[in-house]
Amino acid sequence: DGQGKVLIGGSIFAQRDLMLSSGRSDDRKDFELQPSGELESASRDVVINSQQAMVVAGEVIARGMGSKILMSAQEQIYVSGKLSAARDILIDSYGKNDSIAGGKNDSIAGSTESVGSVYVNSTSLFLTYENGSRIHIRSEHQVTLNAPILTVGLSSSILLEASYGRVEISSEAGRIASDGLITAKGGFIDLFGVVELLTDRSSSAPPPGHLLLNSTNDTFISGNILSQGPSVTIQADGDVSLLGALVGASYRGNQTEQPHS
Fold first, then answer.
1. Do 238 and 260 form a contact (C-beta atoms < 8 A)?
2. pTM of the predicted structure, to 2 decimals
């Protein structure tokens, strides 16, 4: 209702749009979807807004042509549940410029995580399946991906962006797979997991996939980049380090642009 905490441990089903908005709670977890919780729209969008932090441990489903999942919070978003949508999954967390919690950027768990951050845990899964779909995760300070995110439809896109901070694709379960444009943008990029550019093997046309890693500081790669698309671009204003990384390409026209600083 926009006035306080939203806590969901059961199932909520909507025929059309499902919209939930929280106020501010004392524990700062303004919106909580517990592991037993489920949100589902049969034909339209699922929209969740939180003023402080958001915890999504249950399942969120947006069915129907063109349906989307949209999630936003000012401080942190923690996802450990499954998100699936026909068209788009769009997640935004942009922190306030002033400090919080008595002058410390403490997270809701009492650690030192920054406001304006998104954390996707290993029990999670993001999936879209329409052509031209998008999975975009954007924050101000931190995006940590420790789960698979996949687009099944053709000509789709995946974006991980931390405007002033760090994008991390973790080694434990971090995996990105799409046949379209995969982009990681931030001050720093750490690729410890797997990024895979897919292609439609039934088509004779050149695959459209492209991987872009773009950092304003340093990029560190120790994971795997598996490209069936035409190009991989690594750009950094600082250093680019590859340590034990596998960068493989199976498309004959593949071009890997050299990093520059």
1. no
2. 0.86
- CA-based torsion, 69, 126, 210, 189: positive or negative: positive
How many other C-beta atoms are found inside a 10 Å radius of the C-beta of residue 180? Answer: 23
d(CA 193, CA 190): 9
Q: In whole angstroms, what is the distance from residue 256 CA to residue 221 CA?
A: 15
The closest alpha carbon to 93, from 124, 123, 119, 125, belongs to 119
What's the burial of 67, exposed, middle or buried (CB within 10 Å: 0-12/13-18/19+)? buried
* 197 CB-contact burial (10 Å; exposed 0-12 / middle 13-18 / buried 19+): buried
Which residue, among 131, 185, 177, 189, has the nearest Cα to 161 in the 3D structure?
Answer: 185
SS (H, E, C) 167-218: EEECCCCCEEEECCEEEEEEEEEEECCEEEECCCCCCCCCCCCEEEEEECCC
Contacts of 112 (CB under 8 A, 6+ apart): 104, 105, 106
Structure confidence by residue, pLDDT tens digits, 83-132: 999 999 999 998 653 333 333 334 444 344 567 899 999 999 999 999 99
Alpha carbons 229 and 212: distance in angstroms, whole number? 12
H/E stretch holding 71 reads strand 68-73
Per-residue pLDDT tens over the stretch 162-198:
998 999 999 999 999 998 899 999 999 999 999 998 7
